[in-house]
Amino acid sequence: MSMTFFIDTTRCTACRGCQIACKEWHDFKSNETRQRGTHQNPPDLNPLNYKLVRFAEYKENGRVVWYFLPEQCRHCEAPPCKEAADSHVEGAIIRDDATGAVIFTEKTQKLTPAQMKDVITNCPYNIPRLDKVKGILTKCDMCIDRVRNNMLPMCVKTCCTGAMNFGERSKMLELANQRLAELKKKCPNAQLQDPEDVNVIYLLTDAPKKYYQTVNG
Ligand code: SF4
Ligand code: SF4
Ligand code: SF4
User: Fold this and answer.
1) Which band of pLDDT confidence, cut at 50, 70 and 90, is reported for residue 174?
2) Which atom of ligand 2 lies at the shortest distance from residue 75's CA?
3) Which atom of ligand 1 lies closest to the CA of 7?
């Protein structure tokens, strides 16, 4: 069985509560930061931010339009990062049988720098980040310690708008398809991002690329 997130971006207010809750649960210190002229801060995922609320802003048809994306590892059904790691060291990345969580292990952290780079470049969602100080690979761990104890992932627990949902895959797929059908009535380009391939399913109002805007570091 896989546990799945359904992230309804139409309900996300970019409050960043999930981003901070993730840091608190993992006991990560704050990032040194500065104002870059955007709400997206820090500018990208990093070893202290397994979750990043992306914030893209455009002028469309004379109106300002915002796109918010609380980004994290997708816990892929057939994870390319795992395939890459396994080609070097069998079992270096595991997919937890009970939850479907894709977990970096001690073996992951013993891969050579070139092998770690291979893991990074094989992720289709550009998620893993190298902690250059510790020499380790980092990403969202599904709050596996909480989930194994029947608690919600911290980001889901914190979100009060209904944007973040978590549960059995079949139930989350049902909810996602129901919300997509509703949204399609007013947003014809609405879509679920790769629902067959991942266990973090995003409902988007438009093409995924619209949610990514370069932020100057
Ligand atoms: Fe969006 Fe919920 Fe995260 Fe706030 S806590 S940024 S509403 S997903
Ligand atoms: Fe691996 Fe990337 Fe999929 Fe996460 S999103 S499971 S890091 S391939
Ligand atoms: Fe962070 Fe846990 Fe949410 Fe992953 S599931 S983004 S580790 S709070």
Assistant:
1) very high
2) 6
3) 8
Give domain status of residue 55, yes or no. Answer: yes
CA of 23 to the centre of ligand 2 (A): 19
52 & 86 share domain: no
Whether residue 206 is found in the same domain as residue 114: no
Distances (CA, A) of 87 to 14, 49, 70, 93: 38, 28, 31, 11
- What single-letter amino acid sits at 159? C
Which ligand has the minimum distance to the alpha carbon of residue 11? Answer: 1
In a domain, 198, yes or no: yes
Q: What spacing in Å lies between the alpha carbon of 56 and ligand 3's midpoint?
A: 22
Q: At 45, is the secondary structure helix, strand, or coil? A: coil
Question: Which one of the ligands is nearest to 166 CA?
Answer: 3
Whose CA is closest to 172, among 143, 208, 141, 199? 199
How confident is residue 60, by pLDDT bands cut at 50, 70 and 90? Answer: confident
- Quick one: 167 and 69 in the same domain? yes
Q: Is the pLDDT of residue 173 over 90?
A: yes
Tell which residue, 100, 104, 97, 99, has the closest CA to residue 82: 104
Residue 217 falls inside a structural domain:
no
Alpha-carbon distance of 3 to 71, in angstroms, equals 17
In this structure, the chain runs to a length of 217
Residues 69 and 173 in one domain: yes
Quote the number of domains for the chain: 2
